[in-house]
Amino acid sequence: MKKLLAAFSAALTLLSADFPSEPVIQMNVDVNAQAAIVYQPDTEEVLYELNADTKLPIASITKIMTCVIVAENCEMEEIVEILPGYLKTEGSSMNLRAGDRYTVIELLYGLMLSSGNDAAVALACHTSGSEAEFVKLMNKKSQELGCEDTSFANPHGLDDESHYSTAKDMAKIMAYAMENEIFAEISGTKTYELSGQTLTNHNKLLWSCDGVVSGKTGYTSIAGRTLVTCCERDGMRLICVTLNDRDDWNDHSALYDSLYDTYMLYKFYDNLAVPVISGERELVYVSPKTESILLEKNADLSVQVCLPKFEYAPVTGGDTAGYLEIIKDGVAIGRYELYYVDTVEVAENAELNFWEKLRWAWFFYIKNSAGYPIFS
After folding, report:
1. Does pLDDT of 370 surpass 60?
2. Is there a catalytic annotation at residue 204?
């Protein structure tokens, strides 16, 4: 039995004085994959992992990156003429024929729904002039996303010694891809009519698993079954990746059900503020660096907020304002910095008497020398 682990998020949320419980728990769950991960992209939290950093062949989930690169570099109505060389790649196909003409978006549907290797080659050559140049874009993007254990050798995912990734890297790539509206729309489409044929998405979880909105399947004899999916329930998005998994449909569904039964994503309300003396505005709002936190359902926590009673202008946006702590049984289980959202300059008509000026000078001297805000 593999252990389902959840670590406390380094992100932040504030709803009220009461939170659901500390999200450090363990569950038993069977996973048949050689490697797997479940990732919450808002908090960048890993909820489950199994050999998530192991480099493995990935088959056609490669096309997630292919789709994103094309979407970022092409107009969707550009015309692509199908050349004979595009049709020589073996494996899954959208049945292109030499001389046919398609728009980029039509080929993207063939790429993602039919997993067309012919579409992958056609799109790569259209975008960059050759597969080799397109692969350079794929690897550049993976490096930008911090995917250090990923190497692409082609746009379709057929086996190659220099073509591999990890479950963790593929989760990062999927999280990035889901921010692209074109990718999200295409990858979440169940069927698409094209030139008299119906393209049907290979991702069966779009029909069978509650909340699944996107994904990509893959298979080669060496890679085995690979699958990336994205699920959304109760305002929380999770991404699941399994590599070399003989029972991927059931594994994804079981992981989603277990985790959504256990966790909720809480949002920070932008209603914390500090009064500003002699400023062009009377208040400056504070916020965390991120906007969400992942917490276990149905438990009792409290939040203690520590902020100064006031600030003297000027206040610089991005400076540390204070912090909050999440408390359980009298013990802080998480502490998170709060930052000023905006800059507040000194008001043009601001007037301070002698004692106010002295207090202002003392306030800034103590604050700057201590290196942290003065709390009441």
Report:
1. no
2. no
